[in-house]
Amino acid sequence: MYKRLHILVVILLLIGCKENSEQNSTDFTESETSISTPQKENFGIVIHGGAGTILKKNMTPEKEAEYRAKLEEAIRAGYTILEAGGTSLDAITATIQVMENSPLFNAGKGAVFTNEGTNELDTSIMDGKTLNAGAAAGVTTVKNPILLARAIMDSSEHVMMAREGAEKFAKEQGLEIVDPSYFYTENRYKSLERIKEREKTELDHDGQASFYDPIIKDSKFGTVGCVALDKDGNLAAGTSTGGMTNKRWGRIGDSPVIGAGTYANNKTCAISSTGWGEYFIRGVIAYDISAMMEYGNKTLAEASSLVIQDKLSKMGGDGGIIGIDHEGNAVMEFNTAGMYRASMNRKGELYVGIYGDTE
Ligand code: ASP
């Protein structure tokens, strides 16, 4: 019975992969072996460093090389752990830390600024084996928020903590605490000033109701995320962000919301999102992909394409996801001009991408 079901899944996977464009999907399986033997020892890892208006014409060769190098460094950190038989949770935690420590991405060191000129960080992690999860929102002093999400999952009876309470817990757990000024970067501060300037103009012309739209549609969402499948067949997903530039009133995006920004379930897939968070929350984007696989018999490639290209786009939302399924098939799906992304399969084959069709 299991074997017949397995064959059906593989056939569906092959159909799904054929329909999906090469640019957004990487097949980590070898079809001959996947039919005759279960996917033991299969593993893989996928990352994103944010989606948005990322165009080659706006990028210098030096900047592009910097992004590619950091994406590679980050994914190799997790890959090394997986290759040595480590857990997907350890792999994604290590990978996300590398990106949090880089000013290139909107997470940790490179976090964007709120309207008040502060940096408020959101993060989450989920274990596909136990469906346990941890999340923190609005923290300002935790150097590596992904470690806080992990500590909340592993060492507390809660799933989500916010602001001062989350910071108190981080201290108690012995996590590295920094002065909020650690998160200051000149580039991000200039972005805040530019957006505030534009906001004034947009307001003058269009009025309150629509002023966010053109600004956000022009943004680069630099959130980071990682999903992985380990050799034991366990999936995990994690996401970390500074949110959106100029956010106000304690705004919290999708990144710390389980089911929207992050989701993992060994039965289906692991997903991490990036983009205009309000839409990802309302569309329950990460869980929706998993649910389509669990209840609708869709492949990861089919479900991701439907949710991002059809559902999210029709809602008016911008962004993308990375995903990996329980057999090691990976997707990188986005409806924006580009998405910083990378993947590695069990053979050690590395893919690094930044732009969309033009790449
Ligand atoms: N999704 C994040 C948020 O809305 C932003 C991003 O992906 O960069 O907070």
Structure notes:
By secondary structure, the chain is of the alpha+beta class. It folds into 2 domains: 1-35; 44-355, Glutamine Phosphoribosylpyrophosphate, subunit 1, domain 1 (4-Layer Sandwich). The protein has 11 helices and 13 strands. An 8-stranded mixed beta sheet has the order 5-4-3-7-6-2-12-13. A 5-stranded antiparallel beta sheet has the order 1-11-10-9-8. Helix 3 (61-83) packs antiparallel against helix 4 and helix 10 (285-296) crosses helix 11 (300-315). The protein binds aspartic acid. Aspartic acid (ASP) is lined by residues 50, 106, 221-223, 241, 243-244, 253-255, 274-275, 277.
Task: Describe the structure using short key phrases.
eight-stranded mixed sheet, binds aspartic acid, 359 residues, 21% strand, globular, 40% helix, Glutamine Phosphoribosylpyrophosphate, subunit 1, domain 1, alpha+beta, 11 helices
Q: Give helix % range.
A: 25-40%
CATH superfamily of the largest domain: (Glycosyl)asparaginase
Quaternary structure of the protein: single chain
Radius of gyration, in angstroms, nearest whole number: 19 Å
End-to-end C-alpha gap: 43 Å
Largest sheet: 8 strands, mixed
Mean pLDDT: 88
Label the overall shape: globular
CATH topology of the largest domain: Glutamine Phosphoribosylpyrophosphate, subunit 1, domain 1
Query: In the CATH classification, which architecture of the largest domain applies?
Result: 4-Layer Sandwich
* Count, helices: 11
DSSP summary, beta strand count: 13
Instruction: Report the order of strands and helices.
Output: HEHEHHEEHEHHHEEEEHHHEEEE
CATH level 1 class label of the largest domain: Alpha Beta
- As residue ranges, the low-confidence spans are 8-25, 27-38, 205-211
Strand content: 15-25%
Structural class: alpha+beta
